[in-house]
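Handoff note, outgoing to incoming analyst
You'll be picking up this chain. Sequence as last confirmed:
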Amino acid sequence: MTAQILIDGLIAGSMIGLGAIGVTLTYSILRFANFAHGDMISWGAYFAYAASALLGLASTSLTTPIAPFSFGWSLPLATVVAVVLTAALALLVDAVLFGPLRARRSAVIILVMASFGAALTLRSLLEFIFTAQPAYFTDELQIAIRLGGGMRATPDQLLTLALAVVVVTAVHLMLTRTAIGRSMRAVSENPQLSGVVGIDVRSVVRIVWVLGAALACVAGVMAGLLVQIRPQMGLDLLLPLFAAAILGGIGSVPGAMIAGLIVGLAEAVAVQTIGAEWRASVAFLILVAILILRPQGLFGRAA
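Most recent structure output, in case you need it:
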């Protein structure tokens, strides 16, 4: 039982960690908590679902499962399409809502409340288009593989873990080894000074929206593949995302991923020991504890 909690927690934590990276990047660059980020996860999942269905209609061979996984080539191709569409949606929301507010130098609380409104709008629009009924990428059943030590996982679950590691490594390398990564870190430290030394702050902001939306989309596809797709799925993940972002330290990509795994493990322990109905309270307790004991997070710097 204990060993299985570990694998369950890592799988859930990988999805939380990917979403938390988008939250921490948005906060560190744009200086506000974007509560619409969870709904980008939902939109990413539904974009992939719709694109996969269309690809399946165009060629039934694309829906034939790729052994040993439960899905065909339509899902990886649809995920690429969904990443582009989710990024475009994030840029649209910024252009229509957040951009004008930043231009007027609105207070942070105004941006936060605007993100609440954007979240409600995006969620309601999803329910209007796709209804509130859950959807699934595939109806294929999988048999869990014995991993040793009493742990079992399906091929799909192992794939999502591997994908999370690859994506987080790629993002970390981009932030630490590329010019745009250095520009993002400079804007995070001081947006005004960054503009003075020639950094295009607007381009950096657009890249942050695109990167955050892309990661949210991947997290949404992972959650949809392993569980189900629902308009409320992003809302359900929102509290764990913020808990992981703050626990890891704002601005730290590895910290957000590690903290996501910690939150996932804590939730898995709670589900097995005191019941699934207490899952949401675990993230809340972690969030409160870290704000009281170490507000800068595990890998953040003290103010």
